[in-house]
Amino acid sequence: MITETRAYARAGLLGNPSDGFYGKTISISVRNFGTSISLYESPELHIEPQPQDSSTFKSIYHLRDSVTMLGYNGGIPLIKAGIKKFTDFCEKNSIRLPNRNFTVRYRSSIPRQVGMSGSSAIVVALFRALMQFYKVEIPLEILPQLVMTSETEELGITAGLQDRVIQCYEGCVFMDFDQKLIENQGHGYYERIPPHTLPKLYVAYNTNLSKVSGKVHSDVRARFDRGEPEVIQTLGQIANCAAEGHKALLEGRTEDLHELMNQNFDLRCQIYTVSESNKELVQAARDCGASAKFAGSGGTIIGTYRDDDMLNKLFVKLRQYNARVIKPFVV
């Protein structure tokens, strides 16, 4: 019997990137794109490589372009790290795993290197498959932490909990990563928000932009750890955007998200170096009357729009910046 699981792309609605600094965020899962894991019993444990895992290239230029778009590692290190963390969790919790091996393969339609969390989706879908295969239950509130440490502790990837929480919970979720809360219970406060309360949303990603997520947080992290007042204060204001957005959604004031999302991005620009191509994409969307901010760490933006006429303007305008516009499917 084949075990099939999925995990979806995500977009940070408000509060990012404060999630990596004990802040608050609201995120949505974007079911337009996803990663699937297929896992079935086999004599030996085998990870099937995908085209992006290949070490054979047509030329040095093919290698250069492949590394630029897909990074150096592909998905196999993520699969290995996830399997190790799952095994560690079971051993730590005295869960005896049956003597069964498996073959695992992954497929992904999540655009690479544009901040929609394609890497963490692989690990989330993998954990779901392993849980089913071995009949192991991991509490939902604990699962995001295991997924994150698979990347941070095993592979040295800089990552926050936001992506893993929304990919585990799905839908729309408000998250509070208060430091004392996490230290006391091992996870933050996560509250599902009914998707029907959301305003009209669009997502646009740059089809030509390629960057490796995880590298953009290093400078701010060092400044935060040093206790620089500007960084701490600005990240606090970004987190407050999520808190205000959470309150607005619960009270039916969806129109407030327009300004909050713009404010979120403008605050981010005060402490992060944002490329001109990303700034131009955000400004082009705002010129159409929409709000705009990063959906993640760059390359993809998210915002609110008023009506179909404005959405059509976004389709036309952002195409000039090599960006594809979609309406996120949130369930």
Automatic annotation (TrEMBL):
One of its GO terms (molecular function) is kinase activity. Transmembrane segments: none annotated. Keywords: ATP-binding, Kinase, Nucleotide-binding, Transferase. Residues 247-320 form the GHMP kinase C-terminal domain. InterPro entries: GHMP_kinase_C_dom, GHMP_kinase_C_sf, GHMP_kinase_N_dom, Glucuronokinase-like, Ribosomal_Su5_D2-typ_SF. The keyword Repressor does not apply. It comes from the Bacteria. Residues 94-171 form the GHMP kinase N-terminal domain. It holds the Pfam family GHMP_kinases_C. This is GHMP kinase. It comes from Arundinibacter roseus. The lineage of its organism: Bacteria, Pseudomonadati, Bacteroidota, Cytophagia, Cytophagales.
